What does this fold into?
Amino acid sequence: MKIRVLGAHGSDLLVRGRAGSTICRSVGFLVNDELVIDAGTLASALTLEEQQCVKHILLSHLHLDHIKDIPPLVDNLFGLVDHQVVVSSVPSVIEGLQTHIFNDIVFPNFFDLQGRGNAILRSQSLEATKEARLSNGITVTPVLVNHTVETVGFVIRDDSAAWIYSGDTHHTEEIWEVAARTPNLKGVFIEVSFPDAMMDIAIQSKHLTPTLLVQEYRKIGKPDLPLYVYHMKPTVREAIHQEIGELDIENVTVLKEGQEIEL
Ligand SMILES: [Zn+2]
Ligand SMILES: [Zn+2]
It folds into this structure.
């Protein structure tokens, strides 16, 4: 599987440095050019041609940094594509998206609720811990994690590889038990939002710091498993980078926008 990082952060921020400007973008990953995992960044990081290839959006939860680029994607694709984009998650996320965003008040309802012919979006409800086959030959298993709203992480697999995506989470158990028994596991993506000095905020907002990350990663029991870190809050990213660099983990990568990973 080819994974492209569209956004690796927990918010958006333009950063000016000596080498010029870079941008931190909200969470979004593009798999095999057509499956998106979390949609905090989509339309602002993909060309129109690339956006036309998007067939599937998989959402971990409803927080804005994970959904906010769906409306611009829909605007861009309107009248341009023949296919519907399937939005998949557990029922509370699908219902929340329709109630709070695509409600004909904040944004037009582009879901095919009444069989409207021009609906670009179609929903697919997933059941926690039950494997579902997506249209592109990839299967996903949602697993509930521990955040301030109902949130799932995912096991994502094809014929040759599997990887785990944590979603936003604090201490949790089930997804690491699933990871420990997943065959062909090639990597785990785990969020880190704050440095250890902001532990109180991490606990209140149910996120992880580098110290908490290590505790979660070790629950899998595979010390060689490649670890990919994302969801850093942009204003504290340098402190997080430094703390992760000091961790006693063999194979850790802090993800950046534009990076590509082959699993
Ligand atoms: Zn988030
Ligand atoms: Zn969140």
Remarks:
- The helical segments are 48-52, 70-77, 91-100, 174-180, 199-204, 210-218, 237-245.
